[in-house]
Write a structure and sequence with these properties.
Rhopdopsin 7-helix transmembrane proteins, mainly alpha
Length: 301
Amino acid sequence: MTEANMHLGVAFLTQTIAGVLGNSGLLCFYNYTLLTGQNVRPTDFILSHLVFANNLVILSKGIPQTIAGLGWKYFLDDSACKVLLYFHRVARGVSLNATCLLSGFQVSKLCNRNAWWKMTTRFPKCFGFCGSLFWILQLLVNVYVPMRVTGPRHKQNGTLHMHYIYCSPGPPEPFATLLHVVLFTANDVMCLVFMMWASSSMVLFLQRHKHRVRHIHSRIPSRRQDHESRAIWTILTLVSMFVSFYCLSAIFTLYVGLNAKPVLWLVDTSAFLGVCFSFLSPFVLISSDTRITQVFHSYTE
């Protein structure tokens, strides 16, 4: 094992442990609030799906990458590779859909003065149902993944070139490639475009609101304005993180896919960037949720 591989394994291990702890803590918190009904916010329903999906993304990618970085590259058989990458793609898609829904909900709140947007105030009641639909949709959209991935068979590890270190894509097929572009890429692009539009709308709203407050309201902002601004900036941060890491990971993944023998560090970089949102997003949510910070301060005093 080289020193670079050791550093890689430690990096993925740190990312995995911190991400799982952060997402698991949030998942317990959101489930507790939903079960007890105490201080429940409409977004708690969809955030519970988001952090669960983030946990699955980290576990399905971080653990194999950690083990592979520490020197045990071919520890999965063909069936395990198919299942692992399938659920990684499913969870990644749910994370994208949930972030998209969060940005759309915040925009609807900002535009609730319009009669059409007032109808969307009932939408948070359906967040739990929408989260279930996201899982069903991604399970169906990514059903092709197990057909396109192969792992080591009969211990013939040296015969496979592992694009994912521990798994390998199957032989290229025009129909499968077209299906991948239509079902997977198109869905991602639409969600990313919508999130960027929603983010731009929220930024413009904040600028107009700030200008209006200077001339109309008092110099002391209300708690409602503070809470609204905090929620907006939280979602803007999440969207910015997701779009940035997604685009960077997509660039590396595309480059790796176009090369018959990709450089290993590009594969590792793409995998690391692909998990960064799931790793960092729980800490953004924790730092911006006043309910959690109040509990923390009550225990530290």
